Amino acid sequence: MIWKSFSDKQLKVLNWWCRSSPHYSKDAIICDGAVRSGKTTCMSLSFVLWAFYAFDGQYFAICGKTISSLKRNLIAPLIPMLNSLSFSCEYKASKNILTVRKKDRVNYFYLFGGKDESSSALIQGITLAGILLDEVVLMPRSFAEQAIARCSVSGSRFWFNCNPDNPSHWFYNEWIKKRDAKNALYVHFTMDDNPSLTPAIKKRYEALYSGVFYDRFVKGRWTVSSGLVYPMFSHEKHIFHDEPQCDKFYISCDYGTVNPASFGLWGRSGDTWYRLAEYYYDSRREGEQKTDEEYYEALKALAGSKKIEAVVCDPSAASFMTVIRRHGLFSVLSADNNVMDGIRKVSSALKAGKIKFSAACRDTLREFSLYRWQNDSVKDAVRKENDHAMDDIRYFVATVADSEEDVFFAAALNRNL
């Protein structure tokens, strides 16, 4: 591994637990701020170094939203760093445990995913000497507090890492605002605190986000979402009139009986996805509800003679997915329905010009101008109106388009210091 110089804030994170540090008496460290700011890499390395400085033969926990994201974003870059420092690492996937050795010392690091309220049960019963919660704002409070409660070994400490969220978030109010009462060291990062980022890379990330995501992920601010969800949408940039030559096709569906149903036909040309046509049916407006079979006929008509790779469906539309599968003409994918993550991905795709829309998709264009945040919400939420084409677009981008554009985000696997 090639080591580069550390920034002052990275050095603070790497050394805060040393006896010579003015922060040695702290019980916890909190690092927040911009993406790609170097906080996760230095924190994960520091966590393991501290464990070997303070303990031998003890158990620790490293927690993320999911095990897979934790292995990809934290463990994958951590192991080569440890190997370069003469540590020996062995990861057992069946038990989700990383065993780290150096000379005659060994410590054990369990991996946990904290994606929902039920996850708190996973970590109950274990006794820990320390815990690292990566992207703690993505975890439910019950899981984080259960994890903290497991640290009963004398000298144990808490390590928190996150990008900013809504300022009403429980972690911001209970830990960042109360850091003095919690005896926690707080370190706020910007991209300038990561010496490995070139000006060109910084500019790329600045161009990637807009609106609330720009404030949070680039500026590192805890800000409230407000106004239009997609203020970057532009008729000049995102609307086309002549259908391009496409080599791959999908259909995305937001299913509704009382609420409107919205289907979108997508085609790929180069590295851009085009919404070529849409089907939008509002039973309230039309005065008549349709059956699943009638919606299936509309789906077939939208596809026409094109070879459809898959139909990406609202995961709650179980009956409609059953009808599609029964007919055997189309493959069905249950959509990724993480709302905030999906909105972020659509925002990035719009900003990069990776998705475009036919001028004939009138309901899509109408919803783009009306889709808004709930400004009075204590957490990030969108108004449940004018959101049906917006939902089927989000399903498509999160499930198909973003997965095929993973090359850029694969930089998460190479967090050089």
Describe this structure in words.
- The structure is a single chain.
- With 417 residues, the protein is of the alpha/beta class.
- Helices cover 35% and strands 22% of the residues.
- It is built from 15 helices and 15 strands.
- The strands form two sheets. An eight-stranded mixed sheet has the order 3-4-5-2-6-7-1-8, sandwiched between helices.
- A hairpin with a 2-residue loop joins strand 11 and strand 12.
- Helix 10 crosses helix 11.
- The longest helix is centred in the N-terminal third of the chain and has 18 residues.
- It is elongated and about 70 Å long.
- The N and C termini lie close together (10 Å).
- The C terminus is likely disordered.
**How large is the share of residues in beta strands?**
15-25%
Tell me the radius of gyration.
Answer: 24 Å
Number of helices: 15
Structural class by sheet pairing and helices: alpha/beta
- The strand order across the widest sheet is 3-4-5-2-6-7-1-8
- Main β-sheet description: 8 strands, mixed
What is the residue-averaged pLDDT?
91
Q: What oligomeric state is this?
A: single chain
Principal-axis shape equals elongated
The total of beta strands comes to 15
Low-confidence stretches: 405-417
Helix content: 25-40%
Q: What is the string of SSEs from the N terminus onward?
A: HEHEHEEEEHEHEHHHEEEEHHEHEHEHHH
Write a concise keyword list for the protein shown above.
single chain; 417 residues; alpha/beta; eight-stranded mixed beta sheet; seven-stranded mixed beta sheet; 15 helices; 35% helix; elongated; disordered C terminus
